[in-house]
Write a structure and sequence with these properties.
The protein has about 190 residues and is mainly α. About 70% of the residues lie in helices and about 0% in strands. The protein folds into two domains: about 20-115, Rna Polymerase Sigma Factor, Chain: A; about 115-190, Winged helix-like DNA-binding domain superfamily/Winged helix DNA-binding domain (Arc Repressor Mutant, subunit A, Orthogonal Bundle).
Length: about 190
């Protein structure tokens, strides 16, 4: 009767416990591959959002730390590039809010007359200051969408990253491009 017993097929998955080292190695592989493929574009994206190389590097580092934590919790993003860009954009927005609050506090403590922020003076000296200033006039999600589009992301990926529908994202990007074009014409910037 033992010969007629049902035997598991060799192609069925093993019911043995998963080796923790293999999970860690697989997660490390995902992070390394994502870093190799996306860190350059993500750094450019973060720099365009913040206009500060050191801050951009910090944001990218924090973004990949968040990926490590997400994988460690057993949650693998469905679309890793879009997830990375969304996290980075959210971190940049949060940082901008904290900086704004800190600047308001410092102004109230110092009781100094309003002065132009240092980054505005820096932008005036840079060759591409008009474009960066035009981008700065856009809402954070519109700026993120335009920067992602310039990096080659498709509409679906951009929509996922900014948390809107594809149609709403297209409309937002059209309006942002038009606002940027009007700004550049006003500043007499020619392509």
């Amino acid at each position: 009767m033992e010969e007629d017993a049902i035997r598991p097929l060799s192609s069925e998955p093993s019911l043995a416990p998963v080796d923790a080292r293999s999970v860690v190695a697989a997660n490390a592989e995902i992070v390394m591959r994502a870093f190799e493929e996306h860190s350059g574009k993500l750094t450019s994206f973060a720099y365009a959002m913040t206009r500060d190389r050191d801050v951009a590097d910090d944001l990218v580092q924090e973004t990949f730390l968040r990926l490590v934590k997400e994988l460690g919790a057993g949650r693998t993003p469905d679309n890793t590039p879009a997830w990375l860009f969304r996290v980075c954009a959210n971190l940049a927005t949060s940082r901008g809010r904290r900086v704004t609050v800190a600047q308001r506090f410092l102004r109230s403590v110092r009781s100094l007359p309003d002065q132009a922020p240092a980054d505005v003076e820096t932008l005036r000296r840079e060759t591409n200051s008009a474009l960066l200033a035009g981008l700065a006039t856009l809402p954070a999600d519109a700026r993120a969408a335009l920067l992602m589009a310039s990096q080659g992301f498709n509409g679906r990926e951009i929509a996922e990253a900014v948390g809107k529908s594809e149609m709403a994202t297209r409309t937002m990007m059209f309006r942002a491009r038009e606002k940027l074009r009007v700004y550049l014409v006003k500043e007499e910037v020619h392509s």
